[in-house]
Amino acid sequence: MGKTIAEKILSAKSGQDARANEIVVADLDFVMGQDGTSPLAIQAFEEMQGDGPFDPRRVAMVIDHSAPSPLEGVSRLHAKMRDFARRYGIILYDIGEGVCHQLLPEKGHVGPGSLVIGADSHTCTYGAINAFATGVGSTDLAAGIISGKMWFKVPETIKFVINGRLPKGVYSKDLILYLIGDVTADGATYMAAEYTGEAIKTLSVEARFTISNMAIEMGAKVGLMEADEKTMEWVRKHTDRTFEPVEADPDAAYAAVKEYDVSELEPQVAKPHTVDNVVPVSQVAGTPVQQGVIGTCTNGRLEDLRVAASILEGRKIHPNFRLIVAPASRQVMLDAIREGVLQTLIEAGAAVVTPGCGPCVGTHNGIPSDGESVISTANRNFKGRMGNNKAFIYLGSPATVAASAITGIITDPREFLK
C-alpha cells in the first residue's frame, strides 16, 4: 500500500515505515516561536535545564503578535526573547520584520519535504510548499529547541480534489472558507488535509498559502500540497538550499476523498462567531460594517494587497468605515511601496500599520468598539478574537473587504471589478 504526503515525510524524518495512527519520533528541520508563546518556551527551556539549542541556525523567534509593544509587560517579554536569542545565537526577527508564517518561507527556512514545528496554530501554512508543518505548545517547543526532535502521531489524511477554475472575483480565501463550511470546524480533527486538483494547480503559491493556513480551522494538523514547478520556482527565488519534494503515491490510503467543482463558486463570507458559519456573500450583502482589516498570515501578501488596491483605486473609503492594512512582512511592505500599491490604499483612506498580527489577535492596532462589526481577511472570527467580545467579526477575501470598505456594508466584490 502506498503512502500519503504526511506518511512519507514522517517516514523520512523518523527512519521508520510510518503509517497513519502510529507514533514516531522524528528529526526536525526548523523550530519557531512567536512573542505570544516564546516567553513560556524559554521558561520551560530553563526548567528542562537546556544547555543550548540543537542547532541555532534552525531555531527562530519572531516578535509579531504585539509589535511594536503596546504595553510595559509585553516589552519585558520582548526583552526576554531578545536576551535569549543573543545568548544562544538563534535567529530573531524583531518588530517590523513581519508575521512568522510569512517570514519562515520568505526567508528560505522551510521548503518541500521539511518537518517544522511552530508554537502557533497556523504553522500549517507551510504545507502549501510541501512541508509537514504543525503547531505545538510552548513546552513542546522548548523540547524541540533542545533536542531537535519531536514525537508525532502520524495523521490520517483527507484528500480534497478541487476541480474546475475559480471564477473572476472569487479567490483562494473564498475556496477555503467554502471547504471549512462544508467539512465543519472539527471535521478533520488531527488529520492531514491534502489539497489537489486543477483549481489548486492554477493558483499562485501566495494564494495556496491562504488555503494551507486555514487547514487548522477544519481541525487539521497540516494542510499539504504537492510541489509543482510553481512551488519549486517560488522556493528557488527565496533560497539556494536544496529541498526534496514529496508526492503521494497513487495507491495511498485516505480516510476520505472529497471532490468539488468550483467553477460556479461565489465569494464566501464566514459569519460570527465561528469560521464554519459560511454563506455566499449574497446572503449577508447589505450588512453594515464599521471596520475592515486586510492582512494577517492568511491574506497579507503582495498579491492580496494588489487585489484590494485594484478595487480601491480612484475610490474613497466610506466615511463611516475604517480600513486597516497590515502587510505580512517588511519585504511585502517594501514591494507594495515600490509598486504604488500602498499609495493607492492610503489615498483611498486606509491606515497602514506595522507588519504583524496585532489587529487579528486583538493586541493593538484596531480593537473594535462594543457592538461594531468588522469584515476581515483574518482566519478566525471567534467572540473576542480582535480584543472585544462585544464585537462581531465576518471573514472574507481581500476583494470582499475592499468592496465593503467603499460601501460601508458587506458587498459582493464583483460589483467593483474592472
UniProtKB/TrEMBL annotation:
Signal peptide per UniProt: none
Cofactor note: Binds 1 [4Fe-4S] cluster per subunit.
Pathway it works in: Amino-acid biosynthesis; L-leucine biosynthesis; L-leucine from 3-methyl-2-oxobutanoate: step 2/4
Catalyzed reaction equations: (2R,3S)-3-isopropylmalate = (2S)-2-isopropylmalate
Positions bound to [4Fe-4S] cluster: 297, 357, 360
Residue ranges of domain Aconitase/3-isopropylmalate dehydratase large subunit alpha/beta/alpha in the record: 7-285
GO molecular function terms listed in the Swiss-Prot or TrEMBL record: 3-isopropylmalate dehydratase activity; 4 iron, 4 sulfur cluster binding; metal ion binding
InterPro entries: Acnase/IPM_dHydase_lsu_aba_1/3, Acoase/IPM_deHydtase_lsu_aba, Aconitase_4Fe-4S_BS, Aconitase_4Fe-4S_dom, HAcnase/IPMdehydase_lsu_prok, Homoacnase/IPMdehydase_lsu, IPM_dehydratase_rel_enz, IPMI_cat
Protein origin, superkingdom: Bacteria
Cofactor list: [4Fe-4S] cluster
UniProt keyword Transport, yes or no: no
BP GO terms, sorted: L-leucine biosynthetic process
Keyword list, A-Z: 4Fe-4S, Amino-acid biosynthesis, Branched-chain amino acid biosynthesis, Iron, Iron-sulfur, Leucine biosynthesis, Lyase, Metal-binding
E.C. numbers: 4.2.1.33
HAMAP family membership: LeuC_type2 (MF_01027)
Function of the protein: Catalyzes the isomerization between 2-isopropylmalate and 3-isopropylmalate, via the formation of 2-isopropylmaleate.
Assigned protein family: Belongs to the aconitase/IPM isomerase family. LeuC type 2 subfamily.
Subunit-structure text: Heterodimer of LeuC and LeuD.
Name the record gives this protein: 3-isopropylmalate dehydratase large subunit
Originating species: Syntrophothermus lipocalidus (strain DSM 12680 / TGB-C1)
